[in-house]
Design a protein that fits this description.
Layout: H1 3-20, H2 24-30, H3 41-45, E1 53-58, E2 69-74, E3 82-88, H4 101-106, E4 110-115, H5 124-140, E5 148-158, H6 160-171, E6 177-181, E7 197-202, H7 214-220, E8 227-232, H8 245-259, E9 278-283
Parallel strand pairs: 3-4, 3-5, 5-6, 6-7, 7-8
Antiparallel strand pairs: 1-2, 2-4, 8-9
């Protein structure tokens, strides 16, 4: 963006601010992707964010490269387009196992597609490909494509779906964020990753133990990519399959920060959460 355009934006925002008595326009000029009110911990811990949400189904028959799923999207059209997230369930599981994430994330100003996989036995590399195929469907063919900013996309997933989100982030470095939950993958090194990545692990996970999955994944990602690791106290491998507020708080904060460029959420990432429900937190602070 040229300095002339930046000056024009600043002057325009200032003029609008003076006429309305608020700083909303100035903030919008500074960051055109900022959505929703200033965040508070209480708002992030609530079961829903500030946006009303609608849903629409994607039939397996019309999906290409993935098995269909559910789309959740803000009903508001006043704020322009939104960033989008594709989420995969884990090995042998269906989207219904983690479907609470759909409306929870969408209500904070994202379009979310929770996918069904081609088969429930699909491995992480296949799930990564399916997440990217779902994003392509979402931005190019879906009924909500006009609500999405296709330059601001992210992936997430549970277990092998979490491992798949690492695969997707490695394959498509233009993604803005990845959020693997209790991720499982035989590949332990992700030095090639450049996508800001939040990994959430369960301290008592015996299927994808954090010592051989989440922590090595986190450690191998370059700090320059921006990364955080949240470990839930005494949590099993299946913590994403029921509503988990610490996961939601951190996932929303991460996605708002890196998909929406919203620095108002820095406070929840650096230095990070402190709670008896959290056994470990690491981050590549400071944010850039």
């Amino acid at each position: 963006m040229t300095s002339r355009v930046l000056r024009w934006l600043a002057v325009t925002a200032t003029a609008i601010t003076l006429s309305t008595g608020t700083a909303v326009a100035a903030q919008a000029a500074d960051n055109p992707y900022e959505r929703g009110p200033a965040p508070t911990l209480a708002a992030l811990q609530a079961s829903r964010g500030p946006y009303a949400v609608s849903t629409t189904s994607v039939s397996r028959l019309v999906a290409t490269g993935f098995g269909g799923g559910e789309i959740y999207y803000p009903t508001s059209t006043a704020d322009g387009t939104f960033g989008a997230i594709a989420i995969s369930p884990g090995f042998t599981a269906y989207w219904s196992s983690i479907s609470w994430l759909g409306p929870r994330l969408a209500s904070h100003g994202f379009v979310v597609i929770g996918i069904e996989t081609l088969t429930t036995a699909d491995q992480p590399d296949s799930r990564g490909d399916q997440l990217l195929a779902a994003l392509d469907y979402l931005t190019q063919r879906s009924s909500v494509r006009t609500r999405i900013d296709s330059s601001r996309l992210a992936v997430a997933g549970h277990s092998m779906g979490g491992g798949g989100s690492l695969e997707a982030a490695g394959d498509r470095p233009s993604l803005q964020a990845a959020v693997p939950l209790a991720p499982w993958n035989l590949d332990k090194s992700w030095t090639e990753l450049r996508v800001p990545t939040l990994i959430v692990g369960g301290e008592s996970d015996t299927i994808a133990p954090v010592s051989s999955h989440s922590i090595p994944f986190y450690t191998s990602i370059p700090a320059a990519a921006e990364k955080s690791y949240l470990e839930l106290n005494n949590a099993s491998h299946f913590f994403p399959q029921t509503t988990n507020t610490p996961t939601a708080v951190q996932a929303v904060s991460w996605l708002k920060r890196f998909v929406d460029n919203d620095t108002r959420y820095d406070q929840f990432i650096c230095p990070g959460p402190s709670s008896t429900s959290i056994s470990d937190y690491r981050s590549s602070c400071p944010l850039s």
